[in-house]
């Protein structure tokens, strides 16, 4: 395998994809979406110039929402607000997908991640070169134990061969400001090169009171060592974001899409908590009888609005890769990486008063509110390695991945003053008055693979291989209740993948693949994990619970006729041993999850996408996906009796129709594009008695690149407008999980129209 120029081990990149990344002199590119010619799987790539067309600071996940089969949701314009950011593909939700950056595993990228981090914290969007999406399970060498469904691979840009600098400033709606700068060393006397970049983004929430801000430093180098290449990167990220209020359908009807936390009115938050205590809603004795029992205005419960909530994350991620030819037909690559995370999720809760709040004669330091945190630390170290043996007609590839992950998680409470708020929601809380529980988890992951790609003829290629996975997770309770000690193992020694491509001629290529995969159990006391329960619950399921598995078959046709190219594909997926978790009460209460295997899911569908280069100046892109995902089985209780009838119901958060269209214009220095996205109805209960309607949004951008010499050389101005027609809609569903039936507070409203102006300059 050729020496890699990127920082980590990557999947093979076709010459077509590489060419698509190189911009022409006039600022246009050959392709903005690459359709994966030569791949046996459904796969597309988003290139660097397409990444630059969205608002700077946007999540790299948002950039793939136009590709077929992708259901993306977020409550902010950038798609970076982690509590709300969701992606599902072909009926698989975010924690059933795989994510890597330059080959480094990012875990399942869920909120409160126990084995990784969100891509928006792993790299600044300006430092990306491309994003690859495989709607199926992805390649065998992907370092992921959650990719039952699709895989997203992100790739960082390489340092430039030329000494230089790049800077950009973005300003816009809700006092948003983003500053980005990058310095390039160019070729050094050692033959290597490097860059260092810094990004700072700060903006107000689009509703309510609060901020969302982040600082980030990226460093990357590439150094030739004879025939080998040593490369590496380091990412430093500090993210602080205030949360939006979770809504229900009833709340939206009663209070509106713009309803939010009452972070600007602490006195009202204290009053609401007192009323709730007086009404007996929180389980605490009355704290202030004078507050009465009647809520003001349209508020009906204490859960209608909280005072504040936030997500705080500190991350450090580094990796080193050595790659290149070893001897004769053998080449190899190896990557060593480490990731450390320190995080807190805060919620100002009315369910736990600060100490002595209802004691006669209590001081003003005793509020009916307290701050509830979920606290995280991650320290994971791993290595990935792969080798390729070129035997002419056969390309034999083999390798593996090992990771040792220490993850701690705790639930703590911090005191508040009754008279005035004495804690900054965007600073880490210190000095708890209680620790409800604290756990230490150790997860050891071992994965190996082998694959042969056989070039049968110039037209026909066949690949076949398998991977073996073993994940052992151990829990140790440090303090509090419930006590949960023990271990659970997820393993499968034979997960096959076989596929083929047949190039009929220069215009038509056919592909097909079959893949089996497994999702390892999560190791956390929250979310869809066997440890998110009591010791008795864990003991009851540890020997009978099975990890989720999937069997995916897909086939398709890639075509290129003059200015039109694209893909059409069909798929069939059998998803077995589906894990389902339910809990009682409001999400802020944090009740234990009840986890069980709940039968299977059958998904089938059709996807298509095409690009038409209408002229030198104009191009059109469109994609459509149809998905039918249904539960195969009813829910049974411990006695084997049906407790919930969901067989034949549509899987939650799985729209049947996804439609995208984009028009792009380039002429001289001028450029513009407009993109429309439609998502059909989505259910947020397993019995399908509750749903949110379909919606359509339009984003647009336009700008000018100066080509003159002098001070304007390398200057560019760009305007981005998101949700152009100011559509009110529900973006995220399932923020607090899904229930069997009935309305629940698990929805987040999408951002209204917002506009941003960016000025860029290359030196």
In short:
The protein has six helices and 38 strands.
Would you write up a description of this structure?
- Helices cover 6% and strands 49% of the residues.
- With 763 residues, the protein is mainly β.
- The strands form 7 sheets. The chain has a 22-stranded antiparallel β-barrel.
- A hairpin with a 5-residue loop joins strand 28 and strand 29 (642-644).
- The chain starts with 14 loop residues before the first helix and ends with a strand.
- Mean pLDDT is 90; it is low at 1-29.
> Which structural class fits the helix and strand makeup?
mainly beta
Low-confidence stretches: 1-29
As a whole number of angstroms, the C-alpha radius of gyration is 26 Å
Q: Give the overall shape.
A: globular
Number of helices: 6
Main β-sheet, in a few words? 22 strands, antiparallel, barrel
- What amount of the residues lies in strands? over 45%
Q: Would you tell me the overall average pLDDT?
A: 90
Secondary structure: number of strands: 38
What is the share of helical residues?
A: under 10%
Give the end-to-end Cα distance, rounded to a whole number of Å: 35 Å
Features:
763 residues, mainly beta, 22-stranded antiparallel β-barrel, disordered N terminus
What is the topology?
Blueprint: H1 15-21, E1 33-34, E2 43-47, H2 48-53, E3 70-73, E4 86-89, E5 98-101, E6 104-105, H3 119-122, E7 128-134, E8 151-156, E9 164-172, E10 176-184, E11 193-204, E12 211-225, E13 228-242, H4 249-255, H5 266-279, E14 309-327, E15 330-349, E16 370-391, E17 394-415, E18 434-455, E19 460-480, E20 486-503, E21 508-519, H6 535-541, E22 548-561, E23 564-576, E24 579-582, E25 594-597, E26 601-612, E27 618-631, E28 635-636, E29 642-644, E30 657-667, E31 670-679, E32 682-683, E33 691-692, E34 695-705, E35 715-722, E36 730-733, E37 747-749, E38 754-762
């Amino acid at each position: 395998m050729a020496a890699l120029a990127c920082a980590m081990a990557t999947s093979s990149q076709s010459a077509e994809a590489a060419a698509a990344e190189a911009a022409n002199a006039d600022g246009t590119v050959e392709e903005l979406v690459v359709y994966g010619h030569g791949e046996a799987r459904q796969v597309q790539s988003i290139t660097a110039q397409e990444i630059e067309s969205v608002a700077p600071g946007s999540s790299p996940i948002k950039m793939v929402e136009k590709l077929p089969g992708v259901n993306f949701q977020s409550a902010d314009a950038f798609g970076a607000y982690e509590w709300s950011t969701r992606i599902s593909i072909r009926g698989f939700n975010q924690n059933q997908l795989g994510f890597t950056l330059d080959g480094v595993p990012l875990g399942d990228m869920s909120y409160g991640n126990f084995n990784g981090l969100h891509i928006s914290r792993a790299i600044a969007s300006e430092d990306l070169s491309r994003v690859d999406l495989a709607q199926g399970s992805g390649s065998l060498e992907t370092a992921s134990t959650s990719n039952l469904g699709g895989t997203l691979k992100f790739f960082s840009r390489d340092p430039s061969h030329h000494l230089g600098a790049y800077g950009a400033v973005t300003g816009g709606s809700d006092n948003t400001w983003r500053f980005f700068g990058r310095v390039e060393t160019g070729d050094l006397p050692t033959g290597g090169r490097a860059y260092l970049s810094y990004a700072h983004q700060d903006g107000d929430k689009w509703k309510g009171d609060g901020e969302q801000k982040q600082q980030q430093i990226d460093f990357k180098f590439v150094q030739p060592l004879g025939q080998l290449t040593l490369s590496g990167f380091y990412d430093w990220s500090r993210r602080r974001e205030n949360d939006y209020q979770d809504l229900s359908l009833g709340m939206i009807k009663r209070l509106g899409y713009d309803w939010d936390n009452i972070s600007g009115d602490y006195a009202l938050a204290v009053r609401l908590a007192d009323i709730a205590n007086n009404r007996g809603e929180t389980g605490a004795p009355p704290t202030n009888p004078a507050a009465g029992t009647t809520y003001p205005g349209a508020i009906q419960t204490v859960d209608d609005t909280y005072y504040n909530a936030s997500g705080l994350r500190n991350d450090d991620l580094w990796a080193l890769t050595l790659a290149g030819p070893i001897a004769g037909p053998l080449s190899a690559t190896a990557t060593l990486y480490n990731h450390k995370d320190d995080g807190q999720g805060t919620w100002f809760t009315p369910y736990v008063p600060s100490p002595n709040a209802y004691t006669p004669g209590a001081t003003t330091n005793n509020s009916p509110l307290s701050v509830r945190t979920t606290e995280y630390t991650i320290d994971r170290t791993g290595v990935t390695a792969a080798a390729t043996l070129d035997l002419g007609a056969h390309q034999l590839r083999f390798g593996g991945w090992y990771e040792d992950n220490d993850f701690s998680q705790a639930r703590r409470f911090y005191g508040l003053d009754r008279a005035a708020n004495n804690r900054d929601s965007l600073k880490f809380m210190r000095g708890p008055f209680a620790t409800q529980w604290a756990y230490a988890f150790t997860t050891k992951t071992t994965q190996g693979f082998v694959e042969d790609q056989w070039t049968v003829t110039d037209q026909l290629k066949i690949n076949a291989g398998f991977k073996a996975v073993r994940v052992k997770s151990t829990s140790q309770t440090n303090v509090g209740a419930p006590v949960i000690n023990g271990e659970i193992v997820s393993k499968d020694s034979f997960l096959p993948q076989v596929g083929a491509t047949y190039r009929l001629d220069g215009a038509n290529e056919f592909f097909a693949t079959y893949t089996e995969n497994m999702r390892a159990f999560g190791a956390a006391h929250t979310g869809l994990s066997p440890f998110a329960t009591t010791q008795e619950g864990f003991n009851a399921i540890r020997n009978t619970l099975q990890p989720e598995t999937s069997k995916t078959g897909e086939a398709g046709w890639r075509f290129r006729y003059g200015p039109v190219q694209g893909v059409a594909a069909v798929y069939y997926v059998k998803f077995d041993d589906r894990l389902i978790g339910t809990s009682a009460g409001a999400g802020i209460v944090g009740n234990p999850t009840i986890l069980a295997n709940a039968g299977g899911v059958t998904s089938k569908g059709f996807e298509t996408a095409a690009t038409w280069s209408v002229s030198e100046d104009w191009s059109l892109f469109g994609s459509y996906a149809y998905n039918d995902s249904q539960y195969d089985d009813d829910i049974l209780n411990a006695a084997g009796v049906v407790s919930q009838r969901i067989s034949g119901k549509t899987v939650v958060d799985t729209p049947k129709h996804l439609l995208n269209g984009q028009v792009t214009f380039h002429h001289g220095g001028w450029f513009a594009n407009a993109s429309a996205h439609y998502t059909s109805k989505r259910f947020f209960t397993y019995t399908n008695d509750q749903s949110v309607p379909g919606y359509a949004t339009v984003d647009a951008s336009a700008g000018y690149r100066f080509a003159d010499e002098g001070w304007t050389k390398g200057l560019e101005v760009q305007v981005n407008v998101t949700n152009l027609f100011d559509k009110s809609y529900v973006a995220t569903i399932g923020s607090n999980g899904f229930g069997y039936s009935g309305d629940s507070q698990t929805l987040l409203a999408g951002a209204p129209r917002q506009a941003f102006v960016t000025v860029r300059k290359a030196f």
